[in-house]
Amino acid sequence: MRAVDLIQKKRNGGQLTTEEIQWLIGGYVKGTVPDYQMSAFAMATYFKGMTMAETRDLTMAMVASGDQLDLSAIPGIKVDKHSTGGVGDKVTLILAPLVTSFGVPVAKMSGKGLGHTGGTLDKLESIKGYQIEVAEAAFIKQVQDIGIAVIGQSEQMVKADKLLYALRDVTATVDTMPLIASSVMSKKIAAGSDAIMLDVTVGDGAFMKTVEEAEKLSRTMVDLGKEVGRQTIAVMTNMSQPLGQAIGNRLEVLEAVQIMQGKGRVDIRDFICQLAQIMLKLGGLEVGLDDIEQYLTQGQALKKFEELVAAQGGQVQDIYRPVKTKFVYEVKAEQSGYIAELPALYFGRFAMEIGAGRAVKSDQLDYDAGILFDKKVGDAVSEGELLAKIYSNQEIPQKKITEFAKNVTINNVKVHRKEILKIID
Ligand code: URA
């Protein structure tokens, strides 16, 4: 076989066979198919797409490119979750301990952030001492002992995704439906959980900009999961504004802790409770929303989060440490009315530029940098009232602060937002 023939076949809209896909991915991981040919293949896929059979073959070839975890030593139905990426997305920090506090084990491998989207691992690493690298046996033992572990994926798992994702990131091929589906599902399948809840984000701050695109991706991933015997549900969630109040690693840990103390915004609390209900059902438990809210706000979830932090070497007291930056900028409303829009992409990029995220993989993070919104879409606001605080260790020119304020749209109509747009199972 020759890579050039497979690229040509895809470019001309042909369907690759199982053997051809296995050969291509195998060759890419071995280094016999170079980056430039894989880039061309990714771009041909962007334009021509893939059939369901090709997407499944690609997913399984990626799973086979590295080690796979066997979680059978952990009793019960192991439930995993994955978000396709968002701004201010601290859901895992709250949801994983909440679900575990009901006795459903969560053995989770998370990722780092890149670009305007944040990563759970960065948020956890902002807690002093927290270790994301945990050996397989210790990972399994931790879930057996306390029901939860959140670690980074080992270098040996889904090697093809690590290479391909980095390549897609610099060749404008990240937002390619079959490549996203195979990237997400190969990692989830290799990570070994029995059931998977996918949080498919939709809107300005997500890869999928429309409900139609997100639904197509959701159906593909749900079908992939089912084909390999993993019960999979996709929840399409609204990412048109940042999630919750905080963007930035430490600020998000603090917001997560506040929510688990029964504080924080009610809309986020309700959203997390609904996701928890779906995850618990996947884990074999039918629990009412009132009971879930009680566990979330009365300390059970927080206790589990503290146990998680301690088990992975983190200093528990550090989760309560407030952020401290050289500069704190207050952004005030220029008029009265209701918040109509807070574009997630703009604010995600803003936070990244002041150090909360990475423009390129090698960038160092400033854990304390970020944005804390006082008002969200649908909230009433009076002229001169605080909209947001920006925490930064770099001085920010006034021009940028003015531009920040201009990106908060205020008008006279109260917008009602739905956080969960659709559930695909
Ligand atoms: N998240 C992933 O894990 N992979 C993608 O390709 C996109 C989002």
From TrEMBL:
<comment type="similarity">
    <text>Belongs to the thymidine/pyrimidine-nucleoside phosphorylase family.</text>
</comment>
<dbReference type="InterPro" id="IPR036320">
    <property type="entry name" value="Glycosyl_Trfase_fam3_N_dom_sf"/>
</dbReference>
<comment type="subunit">
    <text>Homodimer.</text>
</comment>
<dbReference type="InterPro" id="IPR017459">
    <property type="entry name" value="Glycosyl_Trfase_fam3_N_dom"/>
</dbReference>
<feature type="domain" description="Pyrimidine nucleoside phosphorylase C-terminal">
    <location>
        <begin position="338"/>
        <end position="411"/>
    </location>
</feature>
<dbReference type="InterPro" id="IPR035902">
    <property type="entry name" value="Nuc_phospho_transferase"/>
</dbReference>
<dbReference type="InterPro" id="IPR013102">
    <property type="entry name" value="PYNP_C"/>
</dbReference>
<keyword id="KW-0808">Transferase</keyword>
<dbReference type="Pfam" id="PF00591">
    <property type="entry name" value="Glycos_transf_3"/>
</dbReference>
<dbReference type="InterPro" id="IPR000312">
    <property type="entry name" value="Glycosyl_Trfase_fam3"/>
</dbReference>
<dbReference type="Pfam" id="PF07831">
    <property type="entry name" value="PYNP_C"/>
</dbReference>
<dbReference type="Pfam" id="PF02885">
    <property type="entry name" value="Glycos_trans_3N"/>
</dbReference>
<dbReference type="InterPro" id="IPR000053">
    <property type="entry name" value="Thymidine/pyrmidine_PPase"/>
</dbReference>
<comment type="function">
    <text>Catalyzes phosphorolysis of the pyrimidine nucleosides uridine, thymidine and 2'-deoxyuridine with the formation of the corresponding pyrimidine base and ribose-1-phosphate.</text>
</comment>
<dbReference type="InterPro" id="IPR036566">
    <property type="entry name" value="PYNP-like_C_sf"/>
</dbReference>
<protein>
    <recommendedName>
        <fullName>Pyrimidine-nucleoside phosphorylase</fullName>
        <ecNumber>2.4.2.2</ecNumber>
    </recommendedName>
</protein>
<keyword id="KW-0328">Glycosyltransferase</keyword>
<dbReference type="InterPro" id="IPR018090">
    <property type="entry name" value="Pyrmidine_PPas_bac/euk"/>
</dbReference>
